[in-house]
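Box S1 | Example of a co-folding query
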Amino acid sequence: MDDRPADFPPDLLSPGAGDAPFRRLIAVAELPPGGLRRATVGDLDVLLARTPGGIVAIDDRCPHMAAPLSIGELDGCVVACPLHTGRFDLCTGEPVQMPTTGGIDPDGRYHAVWSPPGSSPKEDPPGKKAEARRLTRIRRLRYYPVRIVDGWVEAALPSP
Ligand code: FES
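Box S1 (continued) | Returned holo structure for FE2/S2 (inorganic) cluster
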């Protein structure tokens, strides 16, 4: 069943969410299997996703450069960012495909700018742009605890 909260890695709990109050966000019926929705509370934009492993709530910000993942595509547990082809596994919290801009993954490893298979790697011209790419960090996803109450999805969110 995917209409229950998904487990997520405990070390990826969003700061301040551990003892935060649960807030009602959307009806479960508004989140079909494979669905992505944004819910906004104050200035906090939350992505709700109904994966095969259950419903997850994370910030609606790509861990690369903050694009809204809610307008991306969900394939199983993997959400594809609409901006740079980054792909992130919502069931494990891990990047699946680095963004085309390259950058530093959550483990601190540098990834070059992506280039199509069979083509030679793209050269980064020297300068601030290349330096910015090298220093761009792909952060881990951060999760909010989810519960289902009377057909509603609720998430524990820090006060806005
Ligand atoms: S903002 Fe999502 S991959 Fe760059």
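Residues 128-135 form the longest helix (8 residues). Helices lie at 128-135.
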